[in-house]
Amino acid sequence: MKITIIGTGYVGLVTGACLSEFGHEVTCMDKDQAKIDKLLNGSIPIYEPGLDVLVKKNASEQHLHFTTDLQNAVQQSTAVFLAVGTPSHRRGNGYADLTYVYEAARDLAPHLRNYTVVIDKSTVPVGTAQQVKRTIYTENPEADFDVVSNPEFLREGAALSDFMRPDRVVIGSESPRATAVLKEIYNPLYLRDTPFVITSPETAELIKYASNAFLATKISFINEMSTICDAVGADVAALSKAMGLDGRIGSKFLHPGPGYGGSCFPKDTLALLRIAQEHGAASRLVEATVEVNSAQKARMVKKIRDAIGGSEAGKTIGVLGLTFKPETDDLRDSPALSILPPLAEKGARIQAHDPAGMEEAKTIMPDIHYMESPYEACRDADAIVLLTEWNQYRALDLLKLKSMMKSPVFIDLRNVYDPDRMKELGFQYYSIGRPLRHS
Ligand code: UDX
Q1: Which atom of ligand 1 is nearest to the CA of 324?
Q2: How far is the CA of 306 from the centre of ligand 1 (A)?
Q3: Alpha-carbon 227 to chain mean position
Q4: 3-state secondary structure of 311
Q5: How far apart are CA 439 and CA 428, in angstroms?
Q6: Of all atoms in ligand 1, which is nearest to the CA of residue 219?
């Protein structure tokens, strides 16, 4: 099948590469000539493991094309995916900004020739598919088309396997003809017995927000439990393990940390709150999830301050990890952006290391010192803060690290290390919700 993907950002590029791997003939279209030129030259603008190989392979086999020519791509396609950005609105009130979605709908409308399915892949508020349909119809009343919602559930760092082996495919469609096209697009997954949920466009749109809000709620729940564990001397690791063994709860997303970040959870929980409020159906649970996440980040600042004697002025803090999670260079809404500036403002010298996020971080947090290695970040430090659980921070030479520090204070905000082992090594060790057994 001939498919056009509009938007060559994270979602568009992953979708295009994977659908071409399924055997479809895919054209990725973007208005940004510089981006398309780079892709034509084999350079991938984002960091996602395996994506470069997949793009190169399918491009060289002529299954995957890149262009700025919308007309030619759309005219030849049976399916057109909208994968443009939906950032939080500049008004700052949580609404998703749909400017690019409607612009793409208006731009593609005059070029529809034969029956075409327009597919919303971007995360969009409930009702957007209907609005896209109206937009296209207004521009081109003669067009033979349907609009379908087909949300993505891709995790950064694992996007290819999430696309190729998803837990489910959600198709929000009111038209059996359009549903048949989507089934053909995802035929390799259908053959592999992947569950398909076929529902209305509104339900599909809400499924995406509800799934992300539920995962965010699980994280806020365990973060709140970790605060209670700290208060009563209980162990959150045993707690989440025991909870997770209950099949009704499940073990995933019960790992405490400095608060969730990234391009999806913070944005989507706020957008869901706005959708709910607008329709007079406020979600108090999701409100609490968002509040607990802000409180968790503030609590981490206090934890660090308390660990270094109550004041950060004149102290050197070594930081390991800046991105919102490992295996990505993405700093969007990373807890580091909320935790480090308040410490720096109160006079701490921050020495940070991150395997992939430092270039971007330099532009957002210019007052921080960026170091070549995790060991350099810890040189002469009064404390180390482990913020992102990159694999390379799981296997540090801890004695070497300790010998380079001014005082051996280790604040582990991802619970990577064993509290008793760290005590044996001579560290004053702090983690989240885990007591020292022999203190
Ligand atoms: C998420 C969803 O998983 C994905 O389905 C959706 O389409 C996009 O949003 P992503 O943002 O890539 O994916 O990251 P994810 O791995 O879900 O982690 C999000 C944040 O939660 C990270 O900051 C991570 O550190 C944090 N997290 C995750 C925890 O603090 N504890 C956990 O147990 C799991």
Answers
A1: 23
A2: 28
A3: 25
A4: coil
A5: 11
A6: 31
* Distance from residue 287's CA to the centre of ligand 1 (Å): 18
pLDDT digits (tens, 9 = 90+) for 125-175: 999 999 999 999 999 999 999 999 999 999 999 999 999 999 999 999 999
Distance in Å, CA 49 to ligand 1 centroid: 16
Ligand 1 site, CB within 6 A: 152-156, 212, 215, 219, 253-255, 257, 260-262, 264-265, 324-325
Task: Indicate the fold that domain 214-430 takes in CATH.
Answer: Rossmann fold (3.40.50)
Q: Domain 2-199 is in which class?
A: alpha beta
Q: Where are the domains of the chain?
A: 2-199, 214-430
List residues with catalytic annotation.
Answer: 264
Among residues 226, 220, 235, 222, which one has the least CA distance to residue 419? 235
Fold match between domain 2-199 and domain 214-430: yes
Contact 352, 369 (CB under 8 A): yes
Phi, psi of 379 (to 5 degrees): -60, 130
pLDDT at site 91 = 57
Phi and psi, residue 67, nearest 5°:
-155, 165
Residue 198: strand pairing partners? 171
Output the six-digit token pair for 282.
């406020």
Size of the chain, expressed as the number of residues it contains: 439
